[in-house]
Amino acid sequence: MIDHLTRPRSLPGDVRTHFNLSTGGYTVDCRLGGAWRAKERRAQGVLLRAAYFGFHQAGLREYLASGQRNVHAWVYGVETPDLAVGGPGWRSARYSAASAAFVDAESGQPLPNDRSIEVYCGSRPNVGPDGKALPSRYRNGRATKTAPMMIWRPM
């Protein structure tokens, strides 16, 4: 069994992404001078090949204690401009604070954390079936117009 909390070693060209709580889109960070720096912010999604995940344990503990969303988990990989996603083989995924892992939405099983998958991180409208904004507990107290969505498939 793969330990989903152990992150593979970063390689040149890897980027990391997280859902930006302020903009409702994704922030794409790249490695500069040994540190991760914001490369850009997008309302649209990003497709990552050879994807893997990283977690910040102190951030997770803070989230579990407060219930307020904060950045403590990232999706890493090689960014690819090929945005032909969806269709056969793609499955929904989500972040599970209970297991501190990105999981398959249907089975609840942690996604492989060994660079063997592709992950598309995108956004969807943050509304319920009634058309009203879904409640959220972001740090600034407001719900964003979009919410994170993720799909994945084996490479």
Structural commentary:
With 155 residues, this protein is mainly beta. It has one domain (14-154). The protein is built from 1 helix and 9 strands. The chain has one helix at 57-66, and strands spanning 14-19, 26-32, 35-42, 46-55, 73-80, 91-96, 101-104, 117-125, 146-154. The chain has a 9-stranded antiparallel beta sheet with strand order 3-2-1-5-4-8-9-6-7. The longest helix is centred in the middle third of the chain and has 10 residues, at 57-66. The protein is globular. The model has no long low-confidence stretch (mean pLDDT 81).
What is the helix tally? 1
Instruction: Give the low-confidence spans.
Output: none
Radius of gyration: 15 Å
Strand and helix order: EEEEHEEEEE
Q: What are the defining features of this structure?
A:
9 strands; 1 helix; globular; mainly beta; 155 residues; 9-stranded antiparallel β-sheet
Brief sketch in words of this structure:
With 155 residues, the protein is mostly beta strands. It is built from one helix and nine strands. The longest helix is centred in the middle third of the chain and has 10 residues, at 57-66.
Indicate the topology:
Layout: E1 14-19, E2 26-32, E3 35-42, E4 46-55, H1 57-66, E5 73-80, E6 91-96, E7 101-104, E8 117-125, E9 146-154
Antiparallel strand pairs: 1-2, 1-5, 2-3, 4-5, 4-8, 6-7, 6-9, 8-9
